[in-house]
């Protein structure tokens, strides 16, 4: 007999299993400090260089109305909240990371925005203190939440008109292929991706429209940089990674173009999921 899929349990198993695996590989539990502090610069850069034709931004821009209120769950450095603010009445931008919130506050000051309220905290823990909004957006902020049922339930309950979510189609380290198996003796447990979200939403009787679009694809200045990124994904400490081995091992995964190294464009596939509040 084929058992029905427990989508919420599957999501939890991926999030918890992936974190436990990384801790096991690292040999130490996750540190309490802000894990976004080291990558906030990249998110500032993504915010500053956001293109008008970037699919999620183009979608959000095309559906908001000047009188709308917006809730941005996991706003990060404000990639979407900052350019959206002049187009709507008010935005609540929620994020648990102090480094991201600081970058967001700086972006608000630089752009002299007066209608963005930054709320420091985690969804859905802060949901009770936040008003429902006409439009709720959530971009790449679900991968770390083990309990996705309450996350999505609260998100849907806070949506007055439209919910717009985006996340990857493939896990962030899917491109590493069998490298994890070779180096760690087991495959890397993937994070939850678009198909998992569709399944999780279905358990809440939410049936989104889904669009698969090209998303952001990171490129690398050198094979050394790509090897260092692979070392991070495989949870090697920076001063104890087999970089010489990795430099050769990652070579088949990247092609050189315009002086930079690019992964296969399949890995950039991203899903945009949306539904109307009923
Ligand atoms: C990859 S960044 C994306 C930031 C922004 N949405 C963007 O697309 O540039 C993920 C963000 O989600 C935030 N995050 C993670 N778990 C969250 C949760 N439970 N509630 C709210 N934000 C969360 C992190 O702090 C981080 O800033």
Runs in which pLDDT lies below 50 for 5 or more consecutive residues are: none
What are the secondary-structure elements, in order, as H or E? HHHEHEHEEHEHHEEHHEEE
At the third CATH level, what is the topology name?
Answer: Rossmann fold
Number of helices: 10
Could you tell me the radius of gyration in angstroms? 19 Å
Bound molecules: S-adenosylmethionine
CATH class, please? Alpha Beta
CATH architecture: 3-Layer(aba) Sandwich
User: By CATH's scheme, which homologous superfamily applies?
Assistant: Vaccinia Virus protein VP39
Whole-number mean pLDDT: 94
Global outline: globular
Tally of strands: 10
How far do the termini sit from each other? 36 Å
Describe this structure in words.
The mean pLDDT is 94. Helix 1 (7-26) packs across helix 8 (194-203) and helix 9 (223-233) packs across helix 10 (243-250). Strands 3-2-1-4-5-10-6 form a 7-stranded mixed sheet. A 3-stranded antiparallel sheet has the order 7-9-8. Helices cover 36% and strands 21% of the residues. It has one domain (7-218, 265-276): Vaccinia Virus protein VP39 (Rossmann fold). It has 278 residues and is of the alpha/beta class. The two termini are 36 Å apart. The chain has 10 helices and 10 strands. The structure holds S-adenosylmethionine. S-adenosylmethionine binds next to helix 2 and strand 2.
